[in-house]
User: What shape does this take?
Amino acid sequence: MYAVIKTGGQQFKVKQGTILKIEKLEIEPGKKVTFKEVLIVSDGDDIQVGTPFVSKVTVEAKIISQGKGKKVHILKFRRRKHSMKQQGHRQLLTEIEIVKINA
Assistant: This one.
């Protein structure tokens, strides 16, 4: 059984036991979170597609940790002007483990 959930403007295909890194959620590690925005649920040959979400289906997950992603380096270079600007960014992430798909 798998489901496609929407969180943080992204879509993720999840199964029970899947570990994901998603955009930061303001929840402490060890707590549980429920995703109600489920786009697709599949149980073998039985597939439910939502319009836009599947009703009465939720996905439960446990927060493992909070952290930052890899650093993204931004370099703006102006040729022949002896001008350069460097910048970096690290996205705040939450690591979750899918506990249960309630279909």
In short: The chain is about 0% helix and 70% strand. The longest strand covers residues 58-78. The mean pLDDT is 95. The beta strands are 2-7, 10-15, 19-23, 32-35, 38-43, 46-49, 58-78, 83-102.
